[in-house]
Design goal:
mainly alpha; 6 helices
Length: about 120
């Protein structure tokens, strides 16, 4: 299990490195991307669907921009504005245990699928 975990971490690092622009390498994001801001906005509630996937995208972006503790606070705020569609333990799990790098194409395709064209 230990070796499998190390292998997974190495693969994640390679993917993250490959998807990072050379000019942005090593820089921390200063603000959310506009396509993710749509998910964070109250307007996303009108989609009526896709809360789990939206939370997944939002959690990863918030962690990159604000760090884990601030991200969790903002994710709780978002969840309450959406009417609490996602369980507390799911929010905590996404912030503390998972981390992905999601490109703009992935986010925009999601927005298109729920009718929230950016």
């Amino acid at each position: 299990e230990f070796l499998v975990d190390i292998d997974k971490k190495k693969r994640k690092a390679k993917v993250k490195k490959r998807e990072t622009c050379l000019l942005d390498y090593g820089k921390k994001k200063e603000k959310m991307r506009p396509c993710v801001e749509i998910i964070y906005s109250d307007k996303f509630k009108d989609a009526g669907d896709g809360y789990q996937r939206g939370m997944f995208i939002l959690a990863n972006e918030l962690k990159e921009v604000y760090g884990p503790s601030e991200a969790l606070t903002r994710l709780h705020d978002w969840n309450s504005r959406m009417g609490y569609p996602i369980k507390e333990e799911d929010l905590n799990y996404r912030i503390t245990m998972k981390s992905y790098t999601l490109n703009d194409t992935y986010v925009n395709e999601f927005l298109d699928s729920v009718g929230m064209n950016s």
